[in-house]
Amino acid sequence: MSANGQNRHARTTRLARKLAVAGTGAAVLALPLIGATSASAATPAAATTAATATTAATTYPDNLDGWIRESLDIMAQHGIPGSYEGIHRNIMRESSGNPMAINNWDINAINGTPSKGLLQVIAPTFEAYHVPGTSWDPYDPVANITAACNYAADRYGSMDNVFGAY
Question: Do 123 and 45 meet the contact criterion of CB atoms below 8 Å apart?
């Protein structure tokens, strides 16, 4: 075989390996091109997919990860800063992830306003920093996280800046 033929074979083999590594991704990208005789042949499916993606509501799992992610989405809509890591760190310190946690022993509890929920917020703070679109129940995980992050943003710049009781 000539050197030119060997070179062509090597290029073809490299391309085949790259496509194999890309796996189904390359196949999915090629699908709209296969069998379409014009640009309009692929348009209805693409338009339907795009419309479905924009109208589908985001769902979150009913667990700590889902509560934090839902809160972050609400916070983004209201310009409240914070990160998953900062929120998670503070939740684990304050309540160990228990949305029904209540502190009945500190000065707030002695004064009649115990800290409640994932981020241990007292009632006056929860009410003052409540974020529209969330529940008014301080034990509601998303409402508790979002109100606490709103408070922390006002007082410390972000929940990410909180490393102890606040």
Answer: no
